[in-house]
Amino acid sequence: MSELQTALDELRDDVMLEAEAGGVFQQEAFFQLYAEAASDSGDAIDLEHTHCHRDGGSKPYRVDGYAFDQDRGILYLAVCDFRNGTELETLNAAQIDTSIRRVINFFENSLRSEFVNALEDSSSAFTVAYPIFSNRASIKRLRIVLFSNARLVARRAPQLAEEAAGIPVVFSVIDLARYTEIQGASSTPVAIEIDVATIAGGPIPCLRASSSSEEHESYLLAVPGNVLAGIYGLYGARLLEQNVRTYLQAKTKVNRGILTTIKDSPQMFFAFNNGLTATASAVRLVKLEDGQPAIAAISNLQIVNGGQTTASILYAKDVSGSPLERVHVPLKLSVVPETAIEQIVPKISRFANTQNRISEADFFSSHPFHLQMERFSRRIAAPPQAGALSGTKWFYERARGQYRDGMAYKSQSEKRKYQLEFPKEKVIEKTDLAKYVVTFDCRPDIVSKHAQKCFMYFADQTSKQWKTSQSSLNENWYRNACSMALLFNWTDKMVARSDWYASDRAYKSQTVTYTLAWLTNHIIADGKTGLDFNQIWKLQDVPSELQKIIEILAQQIARAIRETPENLMNVGEYCKTQACWEQISKRSFDLPEVPDHLTINPDDSKSEEKSARSTARLDSEIDLDIFLLSLVSKADLVRRTADRRGLLSPKSSNALEKLHRGITSLTRPERNAIRLLVKRLAEEGAPVEMIG
Asked: How far, rounded to the nearest angstrom, does the alpha carbon of residue 664 sit from its chain's CA centroid?
């Protein structure tokens, strides 16, 4: 069996599990899996599922998802090519052209008032068509992405299609092979091969800034503005390193100063702008007639600093039609071996952005908080459910693909054992954790802005909490988060399977987050701390009384969020506003009172939290004691390594001397000095675990 056939079998299993867990059709489950991959890879921002199609007529259409980056004027439309067969099929150029044409037909239809007015307000087609029509003057570029579980006959790079209504159209394809690459990519970028010479009309001269003996190569270039715009116009956010991409999705304001320079003083752009910092895995060098080296092609280009500049240059071209011939952008390009990408690129990104507005929250994906949650999830078993001999564990996926990797190369019996210990329905991804926690923090408007913006909000809040009160993010917090996940997912499935939702299958995610946020807010307004998540944790289920309340409330919330102001007819956009939450949170709904035994009062909450923090601090000290014992055998080597790197302080030196002599009883200042030294060594790329 080929690797792709195996990948297809795994995808079919994932689609069925996703459909069952979410109570949705397989087509929608397929879309959700691919939309997440598209967001990870930079092919699209968070897409909202809005399946609509028309097969007959002169202009048949189909769209399965959309998103609009209003600040940059980029409209994203997705279309699915989902095949139910068990055998791997092929996707040819004619099928791609048909799918792209149907999306363009819908886009062009949506620019006409008679088409939009003829749609029912509650239909999926209206959900997409109305924002296209109302923002038609702001749309400057259309990006179409085709999702397929077939195999492309020939791999295609993103390319320009015909213009639609005078607007540039770029389309890309995520077939099964590319989806599999994205899923297995972890922090390594999926291959991008850029033919610089073709886009620029010739190789770009460069200056080598490193010696031949160094581990990686460095080059300095002055990239013409129209070339940079052309490259970014084709590849979009795929060119941006993950932290920068997440940052730009969450904070999308275009830099007005850059636009002003391009318009008024294009010849001064090189002098005024800090330029770009980028990495690549390889470059193809050629020599110009005068002997000067030039870059003709770049492999795996990733912009780690300067994403705002890059996006703003394309915006200037699309929106104002500013000529870019006199604009040149400084570029510092580091060619990093593929074996070192995971270690070096994140460090380049972090250090390159220290003078930028990107905050530590934007680097939250590598925050130690995730390591702690992962550690809890591998150790803490949930209470056994009725009839079970042992409890299962929730699985916190700190990095993409960890759950699947955990089953790799295992026998069938080992896989079954693994899945019994960590059931698929109890996997929690980082962005999902953010969705759960922010919902019960009563910010459904943030959750409705979709995964990336919700994650950035969560990252900002959690980073602050980690700095001021790390011990509060303890085992009790973790168990509560798992209970939030259980309750959220139960509510999502309940809504999906309800009769009232079947008649209008729209705004499920908004209904779920607003329902649970309103319920939490209602309980807090009644003088309680919130729901008693400990009960949910013990049951590993939603108490029947709470189920009935949520079932009654969700239907009323679904109606309430559809009561939009006259100037904002799109329900999805309305739910993203704080005004929507303020309006919903003040409303009263007809439902039973929440029983006291399902809630927790402030005194009990404080006592429980105090105990949990005390336990967390004790666990931390025990962990350090164990770690110090492990350091005894290599304390002198660690001391010499730290000294060479200029990281050794008098206290850490004394502490390591003691450990070298077998003395593990250290003073508190010495223990703290060891903590700080270990942290600094890790930041310098020399974690203690790798020394020796």
From this structure: 42
Query: How far is residue 633's CA from residue 661's CA, in Å, rounded to a whole number?
Result: 9
For residues 303-313, one letter each, b for 16 or more C-beta atoms within 10 angstroms of the residue's C-beta and e for the rest, the string is bbbbbbbbbbb
pLDDT digits (tens, 9 = 90+) for 658-688: 888 888 777 777 887 887 888 787 767 677 7
Furthest CA-CA distance within the chain = 85
Dihedral, CA atoms, 185, 188, 192, 197, nearest 10 degrees?
-170
pLDDT tens per residue, range 95-105? 999 999 999 99
625's enclosing H/E stretch is helix 602-631
Query: pLDDT for 211-224, tens place per residue?
Result: 655 667 889 999 99
Kindly tell me the sign of the dihedral angle through the C-alpha atoms of 187, 190, 196, 200: negative
pTM: 0.71
- Burial of 287 by CB count in 10 Å (0-12 exposed, 13-18 middle, 19+ buried)? exposed
CA pair distance 220, 328, nearest whole angstrom: 12
* Residues 375, 466: Cα–Cα separation, whole Å: 16
Rounded Cα gap, residues 533 and 538, in angstroms: 9
Residue 511 bridge partners (DSSP): none
CB 333 within 8 A of CB 283: yes
Q: Which residues pair with 52 in a beta bridge?
A: 63
DSSP-derived 3-state class of residue 601: coil
Please tell me the distance from the alpha carbon of residue 189 to that of residue 182, in angstroms, as a whole number. Answer: 8
Which stretches does DSSP call E strand in 315-385?
328-335
Distance CA 324, CA 19 (A): 48
How far is 221 from 206, CA to CA, in rounded Å? 5
pLDDT tens across 295-322, in order?
A: 999 988 888 888 778 888 888 887 767 7
> Tokens 């291959």 label which residue?
191
DSSP category for residue 337: -
